[in-house]
Design a protein that fits this description.
elongated, mainly alpha
């Protein structure tokens, strides 16, 4: 079951689209916070926000290697009866959702009363995760090579 270069490019467009939607949602979070600003902030006590923020930073840092692990597991442990394209799209979708959740931490902290700085930091960590775990042509080819053998 050999795959052409043109088919690979075509299939990766879908994966790229998933990533683009995830990146667009990061922008939407920022726009919402800038448009509604202080109207959506709750103004939680600073000492409590510091504790929550610290816990969320730790979780975000743990999630970065977790995304890599999830990608590895999803690519190798899914049923091989599924077509490689659907396996890859599921993998990319899950990775982007995990990365997106990091930005949601920043959104939550902003709603609780933190500054834009916290929102931007979490959003940048999320964007970095999406960049690091973008669709990979070689990885996709390896899925087809595995099916052939």
């Amino acid at each position: 079951m050999s795959i052409s270069e043109q088919q690979i490019q075509s299939d990766l467009v879908s994966a790229g689209l998933i990533r683009a939607v995830a990146l667009a949602s990061l922008m939407l979070i920022l726009v919402i916070c800038h448009i509604y600003g202080e109207k959506i902030q709750l103004g939680l006590d600073e000492s409590l926000r510091v504790k929550i923020r610290t816990a969320l930073y730790i979780v975000a840092i743990i999630m970065l290697p977790l995304i890599k692990f999830a990608r590895h597991v999803l690519l190798r442990l899914q049923k091989e009866t599924k077509p490689p394209k659907s396996r890859y799209l599921l993998t990319i979708s899950v990775c982007m959702m995990i990365a997106e959740s990091i930005a949601l931490f920043g959104f939550a902290m902003y709603i609780l009363g933190d500054s834009y700085n916290t929102l931007y930091i979490f959003t940048m960590i999320s964007a970095l995760a999406m960049f690091l775990h973008r669709p990979d042509k070689l990885e996709y080819k390896a899925l087809f090579a595995k099916v052939e053998h």
